[in-house]
Design goal:
Blueprint (H helix, E strand, L loop, with lengths): L2 H11 L9 E2 L17 H6 E3 L2 E2 L5 H9 L2 E2 L6 E6 L19 E6 L2 E2 L14 E6 L4 E8 L4 E8 L8 E4 L2 H7 L7 E2 L10 H10 L14 H13 L1 H11 L3 H16 L10 H18 L4 E3 L3 E2 L24 E3 L4 H11 L5 H15 L7 E13 L2 E6 L8 E10 L2 E12 L5 E2 L2 E7 L3 E7 L14 E8 L12 E7 L3 H15 L13 H11 L32 H9 L15 H17 L32 H17 L24
Length: 682
C-alpha cells in the first residue's frame, strides 16, 4: 500500500476538530441552585444594611444617583441606561397598551470604585445590571457573586413609594432559558428595540412629555456602552474557569497573578511574557491541563441576541426569540499564546485601580529603604528638529539592543527650559513604546530632571517586568542657544517589583502549607488576594463591605394529581411553570391546575408543535431548546421520542374536549397572538 494511502487513512482515523463537542463553560443545562451556597451578590452587598433588611433608594432615579456616587469614571457619567418599551423580557407585555408611558429601563455602570483612604470599595463595572419596570413595581437584577464565581439573578418586588421592597432569588432555570451564558445578554447593533432607535425615542417623547422634550434627552451612546459592558461580563466565567481548573497548582496561579500585577502596574500596557515563571509555571502548565481538562476544547456562550425592530413589518425569525438555542460565541480547542495573554487581561479587571495605586505607593516606600538596588542607563542625545522655541531631542539609537531610546519635545522660553514632553520612550527588551507624563520638572542651565508617571493613571511609570523608572535626567550643553552638543540621557530603573515577587513566593508557601486559600482552586476573590498581598508587604488592612444574609431555602412544589400522559408536563415544564407568575404562566402552580391546563392547552400545544419538522414558526419551541437537557433528553432525540408524541396527543385531547370552535386553535393557520390567552383570568 503506497504511503500516500496510509497517510489518508491515518488522517481519517484522527478525531475531526469540526466534529468535536467542546465543553460549555456556562450553559442553560447546568444552571445551579437558585440561591448561592456561598457569597453574596453585588446587589446584596450594596443594599443590605442591618438585620438582613434591604434599603433600596426610591424612586429609580435616586437609585441611579446613589450608584453614580459609587463609581469614578474619570469625569464622564458612570451610570449608563437605555429604555426598552417593547422588548423581549418576561416583563414585555406588562405595560400594554401604554408601552411608551411605562418603558422598561436598563442600567449598568462604567468606571472604577470611588477611592478612599481605607475603604476597599466594590467593583461594580460590568458586575451589576438592573432593569426597572414601573408598571409592575419590579426590579430585575443580575449581579456578580465573587465567592461563588457566578452572576446571581434576583427580583425585587413591591418597589414603590411607601412600600417595603421584597427581594427574592429568581428561578435560575427559567432565567437561563434566555440567559444561556448565565450572565447578562443584550441585542446586537443597532439595538433597534432600545431608545437608540429614533422611532422608539420619538414615541418616548410623546409618551413622557414631562420627562423628555427633545431627542437630546433620549438618544445617547449608552446602548453601545452597555453592549460592551455585557460582553465583558460574559468573560468573567472564562477567567474563573482558567484560574480554578486550568491552573492546578499555587505556582501556576501565582505566575498568572504576577502577570496581572505587572499589567496593571504598567497602566494596562504590557507584562513580562518572557519571564520563566510565566512560560513554565503558567503557560506550560495551562497548556498541559487544557489537554487533560478539556480534550474536546471549551465553548464560550455569547452575550448578543439578534436585534429586533418592534416596528418592522417583516416576519419575526425564530433566531430573534431569546429562548432559541444559540451557538457558541467562541470555541477554543487548544491553548495558544493569544488566549493565554487574553486571560491575563480579563483577570486584571478583578482588581481596582485603587488597589494598584496602593501597591505602587508601597513598592516606592519599600525601595527607599534600599535605594542602591536597580540599574542605570546612559544614552547620547542629539537635536533632531529645531523650530522657533521648540527643540526635539533624540536620545539613544533606535536599533540599539541595549539601553533606552527616547524623543523629547522641549519648549524654551527666553532661552530657558519651560516644559518637556516625552514623545517616545523605549527600552531594549521591553515590547512597549511609552509616552509617559512628566509629573515633575526641575531644570537648571546644565540639566533637566524629570519625574515620569503613567499617562492615564495616577501611577509610576513602570516597565513590562514591573520595575519603576525611578529617575530621568537630560544633561545639556553649556549653551541652550546652541544645538545641545554633548547632551545625554540618564535613566534609573528601580528593582522594586522584587517585593511583590517575594510576597507572591510567600503566598505560594502559605497555600502549599494550607495556611491560606488565596491561590487554591477556589474562585479568584479580590478581597482574599489583595488582603494577603498587603499583609506580606506590611501594609495596613482595608475596610471591606461585610454583610451577611441567610441562604434561602429551596421551595418545594407539591404536584397535583394529573392522570395519564398529561402528567408528562411535569418533567418537561415544571422548572419554569410551577411558580405563581403570569410570565411565564404558572399553569402547574397552586390549586385548579386541571382548569389552568384547559385554558393554556392551545398555546402549550402550539409551542410544542414548533418542534416539528417543516414549520416556520417565529417563536422558539417549548420546552426551551437550551434547557431541554435538564429533562434528560436532547434537541436531537426529543422530537422523535414517545414522550413528545404522548404530550401532543394528550394536549390535543384537552382541546378536542373543551373547545368547540377548533379552527380558532388550529396551528399554524392561526396567528399565535389570536389563540386563547393562557391564565387570562389571572
Amino acid at each position: 500500500m503506497p504511503w500516500q494511502t496510509l497517510l489518508i487513512i491515518a488522517c481519517l482515523l484522527l478525531p475531526a476538530r469540526g466534529l468535536a463537542t467542546p465543553q460549555w463553560i456556562e450553559h442553560a443545562s447546568i444552571p445551579g441552585p437558585n440561591s448561592p451556597t456561598v457569597g453574596l451578590s453585588r446587589f446584596d452587598q450594596l443594599f443590605i444594611r442591618t438585620n438582613n433588611q434591604y434599603q433600596i433608594p426610591y424612586p429609580f432615579e435616586k437609585l441611579g444617583d446613589y450608584l453614580e456616587d459609587q463609581v469614578d469614571n474619570h469625569g464622564k457619567k458612570a451610570l449608563r441606561r437605555v429604555l426598552i418599551p417593547m422588548g423581549r423580557s418576561l416583563q414585555r407585555d406588562t405595560a400594554a397598551p401604554d408601552f411608551f408611558r411605562f418603558p422598561r429601563e436598563v442600567i449598568a455602570l462604567e468606571g472604577e470604585p470611588v477611592a478612599s483612604a481605607s475603604l476597599a470599595g466594590l467593583v461594580l463595572e460590568y458586575r451589576l445590571f438592573i432593569a426597572h419596570q414601573p408598571s409592575t413595581r419590579t426590579l430585575e437584577v443580575i449581579s456578580y457573586n465573587d465567592e461563588a464565581a457566578r452572576f446571581e439573578f434576583q427580583v425585587v418586588e413591591n418597589y414603590a413609594e411607601g412600600k417595603t421592597p421584597v427581594v427574592r432569588q429568581a428561578n435560575r432555570v427559567m432565567c437561563l432559558s434566555c440567559h444561556q451564558n448565565a450572565a447578562p445578554i443584550f441585542s446586537q447593533t443597532p439595538w433597534a428595540e432600545t431608545s437608540f432607535n429614533v422611532e422608539v425615542a420619538n414615541r418616548l417623547i410623546s409618551g413622557l412629555p414631562q420627562k423628555f422634550d427633545s431627542l437630546i434627552g433620549v438618544l445617547t451612546n449608552d446602548a453601545g456602552v452597555i453592549d460592551v459592558l455585557v460582553e465583558r461580563a460574559n468573560y468573567l466565567s472564562v477567567v474563573q474557569e482558567t484560574w480554578k481548573k486550568g491552573c492546578d497548582t499555587s505556582r501556576c496561579r501565582a505566575a498568572l497573578l504576577r502577570a496581572v500585577l505587572q499589567f496593571r502596574l504598567s497602566g494596562k500596557s504590557t507584562f513580562d511574557s518572557n519571564h520563566h515563571g510565566y512560560l513554565e509555571d503558567y503557560y506550560a502548565q495551562l497548556e498541559r491541563n487544557w489537554k487533560r481538562q478539556w480534550p474536546q476544547g471549551l465553548a464560550f456562550a455569547g452575550s448578543r441576541i439578534v436585534t429586533l425592530d418592534p416596528f418592522s413589518q417583516e416576519q419575526r425569525t425564530v433566531e430573534q426569540d431569546p429562548l432559541s438555542a444559540r451557538p457558541a460565541h467562541a470555541k477554543w480547542y487548544q491553548l495558544d499564546s493569544i488566549l493565554a495573554r487574553g486571560i491575563v487581561y480579563r483577570l486584571s479587571g478583578f482588581l481596582t485601580l485603587d488597589d494598584i495605586r496602593r501597591f505602587d505607593t508601597r513598592l516606592i516606600q519599600l525601595d527607599t529603604l534600599q535605594p542602591d538596588r536597580g540599574q542605570h542607563f546612559r544614552a547620547p542625545c542629539r537635536v533632531s528638529k529645531s523650530q522657533d522655541a521648540t527643540i526635539e531631542l533624540s536620545c539613544g539609537e533606535i536599533d540599539s539592543s541595549d539601553g533606552p531610546q527616547a524623543i523629547f519635545e522641549i519648549q524654551l522660553l527666553q532661552n530657558r527650559v519651560d516644559s518637556v514632553r516625552v514623545l517616545r520612550l523605549k527600552f531594549a527588551g521591553d515590547p512597549n513604546i511609552w509616552q509617559p507624563r512628566v509629573s515633575a520638572l526641575n531644570t537648571n542651565s546644565a540639566t533637566i530632571e524629570l519625574e515620569l508617571a503613567d499617562a492615564d493613571a495616577d501611577l509610576s511609570q513602570r516597565l513590562a517586568n514591573g520595575n519603576r523608572i525611578s529617575s530621568a535626567k537630560i544633561s545639556l550643553g553649556s549653551n541652550l542657544s546652541s544645538p545641545f552638543s554633548g547632551s545625554g540621557l540618564d535613566i534609573g530603573i528601580s528593582d522594586d517589583f522584587r517585593y511583590l515577587d517575594k510576597a507572591l513566593a510567600e503566598l505560594v508557601e502559605h497555600n502549599d502549607m494550607n495556611e491560606s486559600d488565596s491561590l487554591s482552586a477556589l474562585p479568584f476573590r479580590r478581597r482574599q488576594i489583595v488582603e494577603q498581598l498587603m499583609r506580606q508587604l506590611g501594609m495596613q488592612s482595608l475596610n471591606w463591605s461585610q454583610v451577611s444574609k441567610p441562604p434561602e431555602t429551596a421551595k418545594k412544589h407539591s404536584r397535583a394529581e394529573l392522570n395519564g400522559d398529561i402528567a408528562l408536563l411535569y418533567p418537561y415544564c415544571e422548572n419554569c411553570h410551577s411558580d405563581a407568575s403570569i410570565n411565564p404562566p404558572g399553569f402547574l402552580y397552586g390549586e385548579g391546575i386541571a382548569q389552568k391546563l384547559v385554558q393554556c392547552a392551545p398555546r402549550i400545544l402550539t409551542r410544542l408543535k414548533a418542534w416539528g419538522q417543516g414549520y416556520d414558526f417565529p417563536r422558539s419551541p417549548m420546552p426551551p431548546p437550551a434547557s431541554l437537557g435538564l429533562s434528560g433528553t436532547s434537541i436531537d432525540t426529543w422530537p422523535d421520542s414517545d414522550h413528545y408524541r404522548q404530550l401532543l396527543n394528550a394536549l390535543q385531547g384537552l382541546i378536542d374536549k373543551h373547545y368547540l370552535d377548533e379552527k380558532n386553535i388550529s396551528w399554524p393557520a392561526t396567528d399565535y397572538a389570536e389563540l386563547p390567552p393562557c391564565l387570562a383570568a389571572n
